[in-house]
Amino acid sequence: MKDLMGKAIWDYYHNENPEDLQTETSISELDELPVDYLFRGFEEMNDIEQKALELSKGKVLDIGAGAGSHSLYLQNEKNLDVTALDISPRSIEVCKLRGIKKAVAENMLHFSGETFDTILLLMNGTGIFQSLKVIDIYLEKLHSLLNGKGQVLIDSTDILYMFDQDEDGGVYIPAEGYYGELDYIVHYKGESEDPIKWLYLDFNTLKNAAENNGFKVEEILQDEDAYLARLIKK
């Protein structure tokens, strides 16, 4: 992994000629992702992010922390005990430089030794699950990281709207696999990451998978095709 996302975050924080990231998927064209978007304050975040941060309590694990904006808010504004976790070493270094007291560069599947009252997976948090074939592995891990009365707050988008519809409202989707399983590619300063598997989930599919892995699931908020869900142990 070239850690291009981390490089962009590092360049922006250190003012070393940062450029916009470019992202694309197997069903969408190249799109610009301004790096400053990853450094937003609470007031600039969308309704789903704000709601998740408002509901966060106790000891918190922020998975896929990126530049650490969610962790910073919870640590500094809500005085919570927060651990920022990301697979990107450069991103975690920036989290530390921004003042996050606990920041770990690790794959969530390899992270252990603690349990939490709140686990956050935001900005399409289901993406980290990669595909329905391995989603159980991730949900089992989340279950093991959660305290008895804890909660997982996770968001995603039902991307069915991205597929062509016929006159009767039927949707043309790929014959193989689940339509939310995509290849996701990041580009930065002329370099490209290898494609990674990324999973967008409709709420019912997330609910069924989570219930099969010992969770009760509720939809907290819906914003057009995106939603925030809460998972708690049964």
Q: Uncertain regions: pLDDT < 50 for 5+ in a row?
A: none
- Secondary-structure element string: HEEHEHEHEEHEEEEHEE
Major sheet attributes: 7 strands, mixed
Q: How many β-strand stretches?
A: 12
Distance between the termini: 37 Å
Q: Please tally the helical runs, counting DSSP H or I stretches of 4 or more residues.
A: 6
Sequence of strands across the biggest β-sheet: 5-4-3-6-7-12-11
How much of the sequence lies in strands comes to 25-35%
Write the layout of secondary structure elements.
Elements: H1 4-14, E1 21-25, E2 28-33, H2 47-55, E3 59-63, H3 69-76, E4 81-86, H4 89-97, E5 102-105, E6 116-121, H5 135-145, E7 146-157, E8 181-188, E9 191-192, E10 196-199, H6 203-211, E11 215-223, E12 226-233
Parallel strand pairs: 3-4, 3-6, 4-5, 6-7
Antiparallel strand pairs: 1-2, 1-8, 7-12, 8-9, 8-10, 11-12
